[in-house]
Amino acid sequence: MSVAETATETAVEPDIATESATATESATATEFAAATEFATETESESDTAPEQASRRRAQFHPLNISSVRHLTDDSIEVTFEVPSAYASAYGYAPGQYIAIRTSVAGEDVRRSYSICQAPVRGELKVAIKRDLGGLFSTWAVDHLAPGMELEVMSPEGRFTSQTDAATFAAATHFVGIAAGSGITPMMALIESTLRASPANQFSLVYSNRTAMDTMFVDELADLKDRYPSRLALYHVLTRERRSSELLSGRLDAAKFREILGTLIRPSDIDEWFICGPFDLVQLCRDTLVDLGVEVSAIRYELFTTGRPDRPTGQSGRPVEPTAGEAVHTISFTLDGTTATVTSPVHSNESILNAALRVRGDVPFACAGGVCGTCRAVVTSGTVDMVENYALEPEELARGYVLTCQAVPTSDAVSVTYDA
Ligand SMILES: Cc1cc2nc3c(=O)[nH]c(=O)nc-3n(C[C@H](O)[C@H](O)[C@H](O)COP(=O)(O)OP(=O)(O)OC[C@H]3O[C@@H](n4cnc5c(N)ncnc54)[C@H](O)[C@@H]3O)c2cc1C
Ligand code: FES
């Protein structure tokens, strides 16, 4: 089904009726456990309770690619096999991401990708969109094939529902706002939410340039067929005319307000999930807060800072202290072991960069201040954080910093990744 078809269907039925579950929509207890971040270890297909998932240390393992499927000319879906020996390490909550580590053209790269399906035992799916001029995504879209093996980090991230389990299993209404590849975590969130309870609803506002660019268009149409009254799809196309003026053109503040005024009632919504470019995320957040939505009900995920001068993913900058020069002394604790490294003052080096010189397993993924994987608590000394798109104010108040962005400002600094 095309974007135009699915959107027309939604346009004539913009309101989502709450109705009793049909046979196909009702979720069994097992489906519920398998599909949600609230899963517990019973007989469910789910492998890891979410609390475990969020506390465990991210680790890399080699995973085999079982299939690669083109979603659009510029994007692929990649499925990894998860052997049962790694099952608990790769349990995840819908909305989380993994990181892939490999070497492209002789360069070590590490990139993050959101998991694009509700939890399923034995496999992980991500979708990669070619970023023009991007090193890894260009290589991945052209070269990844079944049978190849890549180093994959266990799932991380906090772009997950905070709604309590009882409410989630009873009745919730979530909204996703996605642009381009920002749809990937939504695919996991939509499916798991709708499977969890026959009264749950999900409304998705999904912006793309054209119908041809739109990732997961058929899968969304299938979900709409499965949950016709509980999933509302609003496809916005910025470079193609739609029959509805409201769903054509750039998703700016005026259009977003109009969508909220006509298609989605903010007061009915339990949680908001926004994933897309920095400007869109900011615009949606500001508009929602202006309309009285609590900040605590809004989650967002950034894939990049949107700053061409600071592309994410750069790490491992070579820095060599020379004898006699002024240095910062950095101590860091990871998995109960403390190590110390010195960093030349003039190098303006991040704590992560310095720590990687002495321990290769220091956690990080984007190295751009957006994902939060490298967070640690400063236990003594002071630092300056260059960028922070990942930590919430209360985490900052508790002493958390992003070590990929934190540069020491005192002679000695100690941090712990074990907090
Ligand atoms: C939590 C998280 C989840 C993510 N999930 C997904 C997902 O599900 N799907 C997805 O497709 N992506 C996702 N991303 C983005 C992904 O990790 C990569 O950033 C993206 O694929 C680009 O990687 P790359 O190696 O191709 O580009 P890079 O080589 O890192 O380049 C990024 C951009 O910067 C430009 N650039 C590179 N070097 C310079 C320079 N020196 N000066 C100026 N510009 C430069 C490139 O042209 C390109 O446009 C996610 C990111 C995060 C943090
Ligand atoms: S590694 Fe992503 S914020 Fe530091």
Task: Write the SSE topology.
Elements: H1 3-12, H2 29-35, H3 50-55, E1 60-72, E2 75-81, E3 97-104, E4 107-114, E5 123-129, H4 135-143, E6 149-153, H5 165-170, E7 173-179, H6 183-196, E8 201-208, H7 217-226, E9 231-237, H8 253-262, E10 271-276, H9 278-290, E11 298-302, E12 327-334, E13 337-344, H10 351-358, E14 375-380, E15 383-385, H11 393-397, E16 400-402, E17 406-408, E18 412-416
Parallel strand pairs: 7-8, 7-10, 8-9, 10-11, 12-18
Antiparallel strand pairs: 1-2, 1-6, 2-5, 3-4, 3-6, 12-13, 14-16, 14-18, 15-17
The protein binds flavin-adenine dinucleotide and FE2/S2 (inorganic) cluster.
How would you summarize what this structure contains?
With about 425 residues, this protein is an alpha/beta fold. The chain has three domains: about 5-35 and about 160-300, 3-Layer(aba) Sandwich (Rossmann fold), CATH 3.40.50.80; about 50-155, Elongation Factor Tu (Ef-tu), domain 3 (Beta Barrel); about 325-415, Beta-grasp domain (Ubiquitin-like (UB roll), Roll).
